[in-house]
Specification:
The chain has 165 residues and is an alpha+beta fold. It contains 4 helices and 11 strands. It has one domain.
Length: 165
């Protein structure tokens, strides 16, 4: 083996050794399709700290970070609103990526304990988040107060009156 090939092989092994498997193969940011039934609801996404990350209307697609910090996955809260329907809130939680376990073979301890936990690549997010807003709220309609004069009532209506003290 020539010196140049040996240096190339050592560099390749070193590069793989300092990377985490999930960082190489997986992601730390994921596209999430946001939808609702019925469509056209507005939504707001907040992170664990309550910071608004994104707002829009359904259907939509957003890219979210899967990690919050060292060995901490991210959790998002989605608030849906649509006129005539009850508001709905759902939670979107990250889970451990299967690629994280690839560190046993490829990334080693550096990937498992440093790179993937720091980059958030050890976590993944679901492909979609959806809310069913349910049935439309009952139409309360505009209730108005009608004022009348006792002289406008019929004799039967006058008999049904109840005195109020």
């Amino acid at each position: 083996m020539t010196f140049r090939k040996m240096v190339g092989a050592v560099a390749a092994v070193a590069f793989v050794g300092i990377q985490g498997c999930a960082s190489i193969v997986g992601e730390s940011r994921y596209p999430v399709a946001v939808s609702s039934a019925p469509q056209g609801a507005t939504f707001e996404i907040t992170d664990k700290n309550g910071t608004v990350i994104h707002s829009g209307s359904t259907p939509s697609s957003v890219t979210l970070k899967s990690g919050k910090g060292y060995f901490t996955g991210q959790t998002y809260t989605l608030h849906f609103k649509k006129d005539g329907y009850p508001d709905k809130t759902i939670e979107l939680d990250s889970s451990l990526s299967g690629w994280y376990w690839g560190n046993i073979l490829i990334g080693g301890l550096v990937g498992m304990l440093i790179v993937d936990p720091l980059t958030g690549a050890m976590y993944k997010l679901p492909d979609s988040a959806s809310a069913d807003l349910g049935k439309p709220l009952a139409d309360n309609g505009a209730k108005t107060l009608q004022v009348g004069v006792i002289d406008d009532l019929t004799a039967v209506q006058r008999e049904r009156l109840v005195p109020v003290n």
